[in-house]
Structures are given as C-alpha cells and as structure tokens.
DNA sequence: CTAGGGTTAG
C-alpha cells in the first residue's frame, strides 16, 4: 500500500521503504556517489529518520568528507539539524579543511560558530581538522590562537593533536615552533617522529632531518617506510651516499624495498649521490613502477648530462603506459641541453603541449634558453626569452648570461646584464659572470666596472659551501674555512694535493682577473690566488680520510669555477681517484684527468 | 570504522 505512494517504488531501494535505522546506516556505509546518496536521503525522509542523530550524522559525514560527496549538500543537511552535536560540527570542519583554497577558511568560520553559537564543545578531532585547515590556508595567526585553546582544553597531552600542531606550524614556516611542540609533547610515537622529519625535509633543513634520525634511534620507536622515504630524500639533497646505503640496508631487512615509495626514494637517492648504476639496479628490481619511478631515472640521467639515456627511458615510459608530466620533460630537456642535443630538445619541448597537453612552465623555458645558449646559438636563446610568456623573469636572463660566459659573448652578455638590472634582481653571481666574460676578452675596464658595481650597490651574495660525507658524518666547508676541528691538517693536506696536482700539469690561475662564482665576500671576490674555494678543502679532506681508490662525492650549492674544475681534473689523475662533483646545475665525473662535462658547463 | 606521517622539480 505504502509502496504505491512512492514514485521510486520500482527502484532497488524499495525494500528499504520499511527498513529500520540499522539497514539505512549500513546502506550509507556502502554509499559511493551522490546519486546513490540522494536516493538514500529520500528513504530517510520517507521513513521519518531525518531526526535520528546517528543517521543524520552519517549522512552529513558522507557529504562533507567523502571524495564523491558534496560540501554544498552537506551544508544543507547541516542546517536542518536542530541542535548539531560535536560530530556534526567536526564533519563540516573536516570537510572544509580538505577542500580547495580558499574554501578552507570556511573550516575556521564553522569552528568560530561552534564556539559562539552552539552548546557543543570541540574535542580532539575538532582540533585535528582545524589545524589541518590552518596549515592549508596558511593561517599562521589562527594556528597560534588554536594552540592556546588546545592548552586550555588540556588537549596538548594528545599525540595526534600535537602532531597536527607540528605540521600546522611547519606548514606556516614556523619550523622552530614546530620543533618546540615536538620536544615538549608528553610522548612521541612513530608518526610524530616521521612528521617532524618530513617537516624538516620539506623546509629544506636536510641536516636537521638526518640528525633527527640519530635521536629517533635512541627513543626506540622503530622506523617504517615513511621514515625511510623522508630520510632518503634528505640524503639525496645533501649527497649523503653512505647514509643512503644504510637506509637501503634497513629497507632490505624490513622488506620495505618492495614498497613503491621507498623504491622511488632509493632511485632518487642513488642518482643524486652520483651512483646511476645503483639507481638502475633498484629500478630493474621494482615490481611496480609509477610516474615517480620513471621521472627519478629520467631526471637522474638528465642531471648527469646523459640526454640519450633520458630519451631512451622516456620511450620505455610511454611503452609502459605511464603518462609523463612536466617534471618528466624537465629531466629530458636538462639532459638534452647538457649533451648538446638541440634538435631533440626542441622536439620534446613541442611535444609537451602538442601530445600531452602540458603547458611549459618557466623552468622549461629556462631549459630551452640553456639548450640553445650552451650550444652557442645565443640568438636563438634570446629569441626563446623574447617569445616566452615569462620574459620578465630574471632566471631566463641569468641563464643566458651563463651561456655568454661559456661562449665569450660580450655583446649579448651585456644585454642580459641590462635586463637583470632593469628587473631589479642583479646578484653578485651575475656581476662575477659578466666580469669573467670581460676578463676573457681582456677588457680590464669592464672587470673594474663590475667590481665597483658590487661594492657601490652592496649587492646581496649567496655564501658558497661544499660538503663531503666521510664515514657517517657530513662535513661542510666554506671559502677559506678554518672552523673545522682538523683545519690545520686539512690545509697541510691541501698543499700536498696542490703540489702533486702541479706535478701532472696543474697550474693555479694566479690572475686576479679570474672571477670566481663562489666568491661570496668582496675580499675574496677578486683574489682567487689567495683563497681556497670550499671544494678544494672538501677534496683535501676526502683524500686524507678515505682509503686509496675510493671515489669522492662533493656537493656544492653554486657552480664550480674554472680553476677548481681544472684543479679537480688534475687531482683525479695525480691520485687516481674518481671524484664526482654535484654542482648547482649538474654532475661532473672526474677521472684520469678528464671530466664528463667535457669542459662544457 | 570521525584523527596524525611518504617520493621526483623549485
């Protein structure tokens, strides 16, 4: 009788017409689309369950939180609840916290409403969701304010709430505050440790991240795949191969190498630490591969200047049915430019948009400038900048300036310089580059002008550093560093190294005209002959502290200067060592007096 | 069955 009153009486939900609350609940549980939800909602109304708290909460939760839900619908449902309790508020706050910006601010609005206009009290869940919203919406002030409430409610004793606090602070750039919360929380579990490490990793504080691991071991919480992935990423960034190998061993022991996240992180670590062969062997052993897997290999080959192999892997990637993204093309273009594969680079640049519907970004244009510039086609490089949508980006002009240095082009170099001045982003490195161009053209006045420019404008400089990992320690050096505990020994060793390198042909460039990219202070800027660049110190230390025949890996934040590049070539010959230098932009493999970049960088 | 953690580029 009742069935005939209902228009949907033929639908498969018909039996529910007489269903009890329990049946409706279980149907809500299995709901996976708004279409089904509308039907279930109709049944709820017909059966008079709209005021049943557990049903309306479940309904609300689905709309607000599920990927196939609808926040707009959730709001309608919410406003029909007479006296919403904490779980209902939580659903709304959670829903908005995971929505697109700037909608996340609505999570905070709901929370404020909850405090002022309802009888429901926030609980630990409320704060977890709310902190997530503060993190996503970059609401630093609100984050601090919420922290105050958390303390007043006594929820600062809760691990999950504290972990959310850490992420929220770190996401707002307050990494030290985040660490303070971490230190002061009553107990730390595995997730809290992993969060703290990943926050450091994201903030670029890789040495801090790696240090956390030592403390983590003492605290006996163990580790898992999440731990390894963040740590491996930090190892990759700082070039800590030995530590990375140790992580690899842990991964094997715990059967975590089969985890795709761990495998991808291992590939990246080995590639960034100069060991492409190991990266490849991980790649070959992976049971499943995704876009990260392929990109890590392609980018790895790219930064090592092996464009042909990057291209080969790109082809295999397509064959495997994995869709490339913009990072894939960055790796490809980088490889092409460093290997001088101009034709191929151009082809892939066009392929991005024509075949994969990917819009080239500023970095892709940067690669194109580099591709032409490095190959000596400076006019074409200039044309790329002119035709790019981001012709007012200093990065492009800076890249062009670098190419002018390689090809000793004063005219276009000066043009690049003028644009950098106009864009108000002239850096010391730019002056040093142009000065180098003048020096090679024997234009002493030009060199003097650059020197004056730096001094008169008080141009901000990037301090240069190099680091080398010896044993389980990362050692960091700056120009003329005397802060290392073994400083005296290092300088003695360096004198010996220079002597032995000179026996096989090395001659230090005495000319004060040789401007060094590492020069970070005015004193050292023009006096190469009296200063020791950080990588020389790192190399000396590495030679002194590692067994004969082992290869050295140096990581530095700036480009290698010509003298150091030359020096390293002769050292590799004199000491019969492989020396790998990871530059700001690429890898140099020195062996037997030659470099893999073929003096082209 | 209301909560917190992961990789490539920059």
TrEMBL record:
PPR repeats lie at residues 158-188, 189-223, 259-289, 290-324. Residues 532-601 form the DYW domain. One of its GO terms (biological process) is RNA modification. InterPro entries: DYW_dom (IPR032867), E2_motif (IPR046849), E_motif (IPR046848), PPR_At4g14850-like_plant (IPR046960), PPR_rpt (IPR002885), TPR-like_helical_dom_sf (IPR011990). Pfam families: DYW_deaminase (PF14432), E_motif (PF20431), Eplus_motif (PF20430), PPR (PF01535), PPR_2 (PF13041). GO terms for molecular function: mRNA binding; zinc ion binding. Keywords: Repeat. Belongs to the PPR family. PCMP-H subfamily. This is DYW domain-containing protein. It comes from Vitis rotundifolia (Muscadine grape).
């Amino acid at each position: 009788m009742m069935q005939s009153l209902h228009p949907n009486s033929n639908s498969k939900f018909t039996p529910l017409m007489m269903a009890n609350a329990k049946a409706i609940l279980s149907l809500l549980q299995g709901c996976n689309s708004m279409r089904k939800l509308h039907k279930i909602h109709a049944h709820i109304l017909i059966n008079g369950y709209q005021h049943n708290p557990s049903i309306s909460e479940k309904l609300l939760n689905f709309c607000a939180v599920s990927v196939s839900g609808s926040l707009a619908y959730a709001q309608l449902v919410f406003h029909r609840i007479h006296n919403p309790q904490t779980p209902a508020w939580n659903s709304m706050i959670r829903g908005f916290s995971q929505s697109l910006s700037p909608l996340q601010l609505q999570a905070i609005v709901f929370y404020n409403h909850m405090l002022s206009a309802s009888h429901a009290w926030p609980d630990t869940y409320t704060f977890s969701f709310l902190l997530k919203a503060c993190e996503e919406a970059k609401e630093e002030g609100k984050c601090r304010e919420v922290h105050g409430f958390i303390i007043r409610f006594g929820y600062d004793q809760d691990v999950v709430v504290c972990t959310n606090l850490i992420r929220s602070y770190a996401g707002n750039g307050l990494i030290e505050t985040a660490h303070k919360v971490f230190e002061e929380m009553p107990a730390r579990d595995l997730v809290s440790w992993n969060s703290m490490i990943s926050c450091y990793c994201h903030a670029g504080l890789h040495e801090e991240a790696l240090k956390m691991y030592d403390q983590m071991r003492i605290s006996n919480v163990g580790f898992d795949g999440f731990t390894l992935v963040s740590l491996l990423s930090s190892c990759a960034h700082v070039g800590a191969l030995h530590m990375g190998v140790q992580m690899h061993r842990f991964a094997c022991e715990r059967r975590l190498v089969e985890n795709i996240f761990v495998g991808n992180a291992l590939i990246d670590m080995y590639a960034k630490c100069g060991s492409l062969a190991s990266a490849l062997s991980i790649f070959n052993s992976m049971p499943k591969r995704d876009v990260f897997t392929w990109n890590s290999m392609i980018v790895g080959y790219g930064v090592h200047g092996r464009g042909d192999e990057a291209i080969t892997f790109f082809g295999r990637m397509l064959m495997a049915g994995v869709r490339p993204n913009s990072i894939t093309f960055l790796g490809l273009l980088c490889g092409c430019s460093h290997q001088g594969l101009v034709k191929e680079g151009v082809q892939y640049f066009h392929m991005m948009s024509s075949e994969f519907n990917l819009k080239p970004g500023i970095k892709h244009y940067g690669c194109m400038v580099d591709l032409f510039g490095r190959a000596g086609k400076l006019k074409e490089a200039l044309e790329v900048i002119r035709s790019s949508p981001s012709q007012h980006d200093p990065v492009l002009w800076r890249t062009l300036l670098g190419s002018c240095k390689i090809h000793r082009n004063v005219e276009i170099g000066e043009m690049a310089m003028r644009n950098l001045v106009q864009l108000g982003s002239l850096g010391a490195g730019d002056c040093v580059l142009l000065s180098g161009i003048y020096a090679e053209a024997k234009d002493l006045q030009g060199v003097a002008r650059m020197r004056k420019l730096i001094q008169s404008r008080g141009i901000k400089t990037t301090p240069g550093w190099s680091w080398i990992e010896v044993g389980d320690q990362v050692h960091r050096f700056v120009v003329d560093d005397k802060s290392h505990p073994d400083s005296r020994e290092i300088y003695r060793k360096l004198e010996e190294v220079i002597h032995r390198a000179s026996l096989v042909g090395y001659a230090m460039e005495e000319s004060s005209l040789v401007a060094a990219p590492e020069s970070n202070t005015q004193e050292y800027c023009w006096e190469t002959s009296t200063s020791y660049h950080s990588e020389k110190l790192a190399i000396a230390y590495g030679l002194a502290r590692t067994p004969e025949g082992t290869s050295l890996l140096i990581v530095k934040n700036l480009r290698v200067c010509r003298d150091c590049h030359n020096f390293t070539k002769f050292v590799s010959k004199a000491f019969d060592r492989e020396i790998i230098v990871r530059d700001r932009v690429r890898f140099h493999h020195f062996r037997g007096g030659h470099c893999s970049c073929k003096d082209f960088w």
